[in-house]
Amino acid sequence: MAHQNDSFIREVNDELRSEQVKAVWLRFGGILAMLAILIVIGTIGKVAYDYWHETSASASGDEFLAALTLAKDNKTDEALAAFDKLEADGYGAYPVLAQMRAATLKAQKGDTAAAVTAFTEISKNEAIVQPMRDAARIRAAYLLVDTGSYAQVAAEAEPLAVDGNGLRSSAREALGLAAYKAGDKAKAKEWFQQIVDDTQAPRGLANRARMLLDVMASTQ
């Protein structure tokens, strides 16, 4: 008899739970179904975005490598066209990388003015990360050593020639070279000496600075 009572109680409980579930579904079923649909749509959207992100980055990377190959093969005009397309349509960091590489190609072609303009545009673009902008300023400064005045080089390099900046040694070298070219040996020595005195200066830059200091000392 006890066993039968237990079975009867379980059946009653199961029936009550079933009725409760039905009541909940009748009241909230539409909302629950909508939530389930939204979760599915969100999952599909995430998968689709990840696929688009990966394939877009991969496609831009392939285009960038193809343009680099053209440049390596001295197909400069074709490479510039490829970089221009990537700059306009590329994904992620590739448009900026393409712009930087295109500017370098212009300098190699002898169009220094166009190259300086391109690097300056990059350095002033606040949408680009600061390290890339600083690298563009340095490239413009080095190009201006040969084609511009000390003031033009200083406008690009002096903001980076401060303690704590990762590119300070390169900036000081550009300033020293520009001062030397302008005939201001005293100022050139100051910039080169700052490189030599900086214990964190790259070895190659420090060695060049010492060599130039030695050259200037021997010509006094």
From TrEMBL:
SUPFAM superfamilies: TPR-like. InterPro entries: SecYEG/CpoB_TPR, TPR-like_helical_dom_sf. Keywords: Membrane, Transmembrane, Transmembrane helix. The chain crosses the membrane at residues 24-44. It comes from the Bacteria. It holds the Pfam family TPR_21. Residues 22-202 form the Ancillary SecYEG translocon subunit/Cell division coordinator CpoB TPR domain. This is Tetratricopeptide repeat protein. It comes from Rhizobium quercicola.
